[in-house]
Amino acid sequence: MDSKRILVTGISHYWGGRLAQALEAFPEVEAVIGVDSQEPQVELERTEYVKVGAQHALLRRVVEAAEIDTIVDTRLVVDSAVMPSSRAHENNVMGTMNILAACTGADSPVKKVIFKSSTHFYGCHQDDPAFFDETMRRPHPPRTGIERDIVEAEASLNEFAERHPDTAVTILRFANVLGPDVETSHKKLFSLPVVPMILGFDPRYQFVHEDDVVHALEHAVKHRVDGTFNVAGDGVLALSEVAGLLGKTYAPVLPPWGTGIAAAVVRRIGVEIPPEALQQMRFGRGVDNRRYKAAGFHYQHTSRETVMKLGEHLRLHPVVRGAQEPYRYEREVEDFLRWSPHVKNTRDSSAPALSRSQLAELQRLLTSFADTAGMDLGEDVPDRAAEAERRAVAAEEAARAAAERAERAEEAAERHARDEDERVPAARPVDHYVDLAAEEVIALLASLEHEDLQTLRVYERDHANRTRVLSAIDSVLNRRGSRV
Amino acid sequence: MADRQRTTLSIRERDAPTTALVPAEELKTHLPGVEPERELNDWGRSERIEGLFDRAVADFFYRYWFRAEVEGIENVPASGGALLVSNHAGALPPDAAMISKAIREEHAHPRPVNITIEHFFKGYPGFSALLPKIGCVPAHPANVHRLLYDEEQLVLVFPEGRKATEKLYKDRYRLRRFGRGGFVEAAMRAQTPIVPICVVGAEEAAPVFAQVGIMQRLTGLLYFPITPTFPHFGLLGMAGFLPAKFKLRFLEPIHFEEEGMHEDKALVQTVAHEIRARIQEGLWDMLAKRKSVWFG
């Protein structure tokens, strides 16, 4: 596996969270960093969460600081019921552009970009082929906002791929996803007592199971699979067949003419059918999923099995609902678990391929960016404002502390110079060096020169002899050494 | 708006990123497996509804109403893909159903036939839900290629298209233009044989006396014909066929085994003309031998 330091966008949404959980389990993966504008919704073992604005404008600094080699972009919105179209556009088009901008440049550490797209790329039209393959273009320009966004986002990826031939770009176009955990418009439609249909139409549908989606993304991380691929379970079902598999009846409640108006009426009574889904309910869509199979991917579920799994879930759901407490992200607890020297047992012993000192170093890099990125949020939720303010104060304090540290570091450097002149091998670097906590010393390391680091190492060994500080110094030295 | 158009255009110009070229032979091995529990196949064809249609409608017309007579059925290959090309006629053309019924009844290895239809039917309520169930597939080159090459099935095309069903009774058995030869290209690309078919009887079974342009626009149908039973008997009158004698003749297959033949546009056109001429000749021959429209 070439990918060792992975950045996952959309960590707080379903796909990012699931993928990060999966990637954490690989011992070869050194670091998983998740970015999003909200807090994670799932429990993460060692994934680092960094809060960024919706436009991901500061991502480049995170990427460079953490030496990210693989970006997995899971944040594309493919369902217009999720958010208003202007926000979706901001996320899908501007967000994608900014994420790609974060991996441009000759010295960019990014070697692989994986993009989660959707078969909405092809749209649904009367003169569509029965099975779209990856080389086909859509026969007509996109009609709905979401489709337009997807087409534009993929266009910027293709442009990026052209300009960066050395970077592997993988676009995965997923068919309609179903599964017990993920929430989609189609799942909501299938949860109704009867499956709504347009009178006189029985469209063809292809589904992919939520687990297969995560596995498909994992497959792209693990192997080098350049290009665009359709990801959809085997088998194309008719909508009436889907209803049958779910054990429901179907009702042609929407008229074939004036369907849009009828859908607006239906929305009034609380059943939301987004415009792209409405097109699909008329013409349906099938895709050719063979190329990703040829690239070595194996599906666990066919379309039919996916629908049957959903049927089981829908029957069980009213019984088990509320039995499980949902996870809530608490920053302080997460920070404690990850960084406190008092934490003795990590929950999974196999995971930490990083030494504690490396983690500490990573954390230092990240917090400095997280603070600035946190300020950049355009969140209009009122109780976020207080938090943002608090964070601003914290950032200021951090800045002041950093300035002080820098001063001290300078002092230290001078002192070192003097010390070296005087040929005192292991002089005290700072006046109150022993009073400094290990964390603070580690924070200083980056600002020190090579020779000073070595001096500091000797001093530390002779006096305090804190293993954490020593190994941190070693790692900084190693890193510098490898760069020269 | 200008922005939108620009982005769309730029996408059309730019090719998809270099998807690693997988040999078509290898892709063939990755076709989805058959799920025996399913009633429908991936094209939306339903065994149950097709069987129902066969027993309730096709059987009656084939045996008793049209009393179909078939010659040269051995020209339809027993295995592998093949493209069946036929002349076409009638307000609601009965020829497609009769050809697939003939193969099911007379052939040593009965095989399902995929009938290509206009995209129009996919967008028209009712037809859209029903036609795929009985084995109709929209006539998209990609669909034909997948059926012929990957799934190795029989595909029936009417190269004249709707020009044939629009033509009036006075023009009967005169073949229209054979499109741009797309069907020849499809067969060459898939390297499958073409089996030309001549059908006599459809023109008299459902004669069209006139076309009403205004009504066509009002109903949104492909065309609005005046036949002996339509429109005065309502929509069912579309299926009011006269009991003409049906004769089907399957001609010698034409093989395309060389690779890359489909890129030669001139060759495609020549072969299309040749096939059209063979069917037309066959039709004249069969008409000359026919003593009666109703009794053969």
Explain what this protein looks like in three dimensions.
The complex is a heterodimer of chains A (484) and B (296). Chain A has 17 helices and 13 strands. By secondary structure, chain A is α/β, with parallel strands linked by helices. The longest helix of chain A is centred in the last third of the chain and has 40 residues, at 382-421. Mean pLDDT of chain A is 83; it is low at 348-352, 375-382 and 422-426. Chain B is an alpha/beta fold and 296 residues long. Helices cover 39% and strands 12% of the residues of chain B. Chain B has 12 helices and 9 strands. In chain B, the strands form 2 sheets. Chain B has a 7-stranded mixed beta sheet with strand order 1-9-6-2-5-3-4, with helices on both faces.
Structural class call of chain A reads alpha/beta
**Architecture of chain B in CATH?**
3-Layer(aba) Sandwich
Strand portion of chain B: 5-15%
The greatest interface here is: A-B, 55 and 49 residues
How widely separated are the two ends of chain A?
26 Å
Order of helices and strands of chain B: HHHEEHEHHEHEHHEHEHEEH
Q: Tell me the number of structural domains of chain A.
A: 2
CATH secondary-structure class of chain B? Alpha Beta
- Global shape of chain A: elongated
Number of helices of chain A: 17
Task: Enumerate the strands of the largest sheet of chain A in spatial order, edge to edge or round the barrel.
Answer: 3-2-1-4-5-6-11
